[in-house]
Write a structure and sequence with these properties.
Blueprint: E1 3-5, H1 13-22, H2 26-39, H3 48-56, E2 58-60, H4 64-76, H5 105-120, H6 124-128, H7 133-145, H8 162-182, H9 184-203, H10 209-232, H11 236-253, H12 256-273, H13 277-290, H14 297-313, H15 317-333, H16 350-363, H17 367-380, H18 386-402, H19 406-420, H20 426-439, H21 446-459
Helix pairs in contact: 2-3, 2-4, 5-9, 5-11, 7-11, 7-12, 7-13, 8-9, 8-10, 9-10, 10-11, 10-12, 11-12, 12-13, 12-14, 13-14, 14-15, 14-16, 15-16, 16-17, 16-18, 17-18, 18-19, 18-20, 19-20, 19-21
Length: about 450
Amino acid sequence: MAARPLVARQPNERLQALIQEAGCSNAGLARRVNMVGAERGLDLRYDKTSVARWLRGQQPRGRAPGIIAEALGRKLGRTVTIDEIGMANGKNLATGVGLQFSPTVVGAIEQVCELWRSDVGRREFLSGSAVAASALVEPSRDWLITGADAQVARTAGARVGTSDVEAVRAMTAALTELDHRFGSGHVRPVLAHYLNSVVSGLLSGSYREAVGRELFAAVARLTELAGYMAVDTGQPGLAQRYYIQALRLAQAAGDRGYGGYVLAASMSHLAAELGNPREIAQLARAAQEGARGQVTPRVEAMFHAAEARGHALLGDSRTCHEAAAKAVAALERAEPDTGDDPAWITHFDEAYLADELAHCHRDLGEAEEAARQAEDALAGHPASRARRRAIGLVLLASAQVQQREVEHACHTAGRAVDLLDTLRSSRGAEYLDDLQVRLEPYAAEPAVRELGARLEMRAA
């Protein structure tokens, strides 16, 4: 491949440092690069002179930088990016990190590891970017039409076993519990560092096919959780990147059900918070179609509930009620405690469904039914679901405002504030903001003024 000079032809000190860290000669690196290229169908013929030119500042064209990074990563037993080897060609890997549904497993590993690295590095483009609806819908299309990955096993790097997969699952469970109790503001930094420092090494390790599938499934769950935490800390642009990569990891795991969950429970809820109702229904329907015949009734219930949310926001009462009825019927078919449901859906019980339906009825202006469903949700959510209970209280208060029970609504909202004061959750604050808008016509009421003063003090 032809080479082009870097600006001012500066010596590539990053590449030199990594070669030294890997304990690799120039000739040895060239052989490794040629081998990785051959795996990808490329006839590369680099030698020690080629590596010397790279060290002097030349940069190979095309896919070569990524292949060089992969070769060094295998020798080091961790993921190496083209930024680390000094071959990002002067570009901030910019803005596309995490937004693609990679066509290959190797590409998926590279992309998600770069996302984690960028997140820990607090790159501004991650948190500052807006969410584009197409960035959510296009990966769902790719997921629908893409066949299963033929192979995920790897032979380079440190050995990864079932105990490593169990460790990832245990960490996911622990962080989920902490998130429910205290909000993502307390937990997300820990998760981001764990993904970047530990999980990236596991994905870049050596594992058999069966272990690899289980590893991708566990990492998909943890990556989706990181996306949810990004939502809860007010970073939707970062959340969409995590959700897209969780979807790709689920594909590598061969788990169509969990891929559908990411679409319906994660991406569609992000679209809901951003006011894109049409995309909510599209994502939920993609989940239903892509996982048809491969999920339990409980999962089906969640898919239908997500679709109902979209129709409610569109003001389509009839279609919303049809989807809601399907959700209720599916959950009634779900067998409790039989072990048939995957672990990632067991939380979706009658309380969670009532929560979803309360949103639907609120958005359709059906205040009485919205209040009833919100009360059912609150009756079912245990104390450990602190954030969910707080949101349920705000939903109930919103329904009470719709019923013109303003003083009652303010009292209910006060209970929500009590709970949210124990959390660090942007989602909870957004629900309170929405409630304040609904209370504006009653601004002169003493209870509304008192609640407003309390919220102002809380925001200060």
